[in-house]
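YM 10:42: Frizzled-3 sequence, as discussed on the call
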Amino acid sequence: MPVFLLVFSLVTPAYSIHVESIESHSEFTCEPIRLRMCQDLPYNTTFMPNLLNHYDQQTAALAMEPFHPMVNLVCSADLRMFLCALYAPVCTVYGHVSMPCRSLCQRAKDECHKLMEIFGVAWPDDMECSRFPDCDEPYPRAEDLLTGSEPTDQSSMTVQRDYGFWCPRELKVDPDLGYTFMGRKDCSAPCPSMFFNQQELTFIRYFIGVVSIVCLSATLFTFLTFLIDVTRFRYPERPIIFYAVCYVMVSLVFFLGFLLEGRVACNPVSPSQFRASTITQGSHNKACTLFFMVLYFFTMAGSVWWVILTITWFLAAVPKWGSEAIEKKALLFHAIAWGLPGALTVTLLALNKIEGDGISGVCFIGLYDIDALRWFVLAPLCVNVAVGVSLLLVGIVALNRVRMEIPLEKENQTKLVKFMIRMGVFSVLYLAPLFTVIGCYIYEHTYRKIWEKTWMENNCRRYHIPCPYKVEETSRPAMVLFLIKYLMMLVVGIPSVFWVGSKKTCFEWASFLHGRRRKDGVNESRQVLQEQPDFAQSLLREPNTPIVRKSRGTSTQGTSTHASSTHLAVLDDLDEPASSVHSKASYHGSLRRTRDDRSDTVVYRGTEDRSFHGSNPRLDHPLSTHSSLHQIDSHSRHSSQRDVSEAPPTLITHGTTASDGRAAENEGTSA
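YM 10:58: structure's back
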């Protein structure tokens, strides 16, 4: 029996559901009814969207298909009229909607529910009879037909309002995925791009691929240079290495996106469900989720590491912290640099804000969700830039005041200027791309609505959706804008090469490739920072007080600050290649040798004389040679034994030759 009913319903053409090919409309008007099921009714015009929110008659016809057998078998005399009242309602005066009565709905449902069970069709929830007015009148009512159903006067029947964006059937997704596109749920953007054609997309992808390879090579070179000699880059410049590691991962993700094209960022085409390729959203796609986690985490971590780099420079330049003192805060630096991006990443995973980027092939946030772009990309980057630039400027001003107000040796002043220029150029190479990326995000944030409305205007007829009403401004993004954005997102990692690029790096790589390893002394930039005179002392000194240059415990292997605690003024020759490195015991021994041999010359304020052994000690007061050496001897006898036994050795640059240094070290140890 069910088979007979099915065959009968299929071969009966009287009430077959068919819709002619129609174009979508930019203004909603009374339009002729083209649904074959709803022909020969008391009215012949309808309006869209209908009472079930179908935006055109083609969509309404597809939604009516499950009721096809019941209408053909005439299970109820009221079913056809009830369905047409919902799917093709009568078009009356603007603003008036005629709803069918509840009694009409109830009769159709009661008389057809057995046949619907046979065909496996359930009564839809949006057709529940309780939603309609409680009345018992025929449809259409007499007052609904007074206006006249012929759509001759278009001006009086035109609906003057914008219905917004309606998600096309091709872009709809499963409701349980939680997708959202242009304010519509269960909808996703077309993939690979809604703004560019295939030729433009191909050019952008290859451009991103080339830039990602360059950035990956540069940042990987920086990291490998660090691995060759891990003692070379200590604080305050150590954060540059972690900064480079972050952009190794960022460039690697973009390179993988270039290789995989849209296989990660896009959902596949489903012709059986009339679905086109759409942008991936949420965390259901595991590969897209992994791409997002790596890309967003290391992008934010790289930005935080740059802020930490400015903090370490500030600590070394203004309060004159030594390398060991800054390194004691390394655990705190790592907790902040990895913890904050990790917390933001977990938050975005919980909020299900992941979006595929069909252009680059990666997954990120803020590509279509403007709120996510504003709070999770723009806000963190702007805060990091504000903090980093402030600390950077304070550090540069402090170093410049030291250079201008304190007379240094010509060689050391040249090194200080060179270091300031190096730090400034590195910061500019980082900040210029970062400001450009932020500017691109802000521009995209500002014009996104206009681009989307322009896309609707150009594709509404293709997707059979309502066209936007009274479009005043149309615009589409320029391809060069996206090229600049992707370029600067990757180029921002390349400045790390500037910091490690030097002759010393070339020598290290040559030695490494030939199997030789060479240990060097103190890093030049750190040495210049840490062996400048105390800035506070320069501002508070008396007019006739000699300038004291103190070591703040900034050697590369010690942790003590013995030289500053004894208040001895030791002027180190930073450029002398024959200068040796001694421990504290060696330092005291050399002082005793100075007393016995009377070979060193004491430098008074306003005079600088080189000693026979090359050291230039400065004393706090311009005393005679005998009294000065007497003070040194007295202080050495009382403190050297205690210092040697209690404190680890601190490396201090001393101007003696290698042989004299060993003899002085033996004397100091015996003392």
